[in-house]
Amino acid sequence: MLNIHLGGSLNQELRSQRKLTSNRWTVLPLKTLKIEPGTLLYRVLNCHRCRISSLHNQAINRCGRHLGVSGRDLDGIAQAVENPAYGFLLGVQWHPEFLLFLPRQRALFGELVRRAKPAGAQDGLL
Fold it and tell me: Which domain holds residue 94?
């Protein structure tokens, strides 16, 4: 939704692009995510690679305005986009809410909450 809202496009069919990863639909973390160094996603997840789930047969084709790809699967398909110049603008293609048993996936939610709090609440002043 984020990518489309910012003028990007979607690839409507991924099955034919899958060479190194499975087309299997699963909430289990069976896909490998390669994260671009120096990105917001890299700072939040604190790793070069991690495991993600696979529930979609669509993915970003062309990035929307001011978005850059920060994570791809082994087939090179965009799995995360961001615009750090905007503050905290990060979109992921997988479902971290199904992977809360993994600390790195929980870190996404922790960072979202931290960034959403007013400055005084972060310091315990509110």
Answer: 2-112
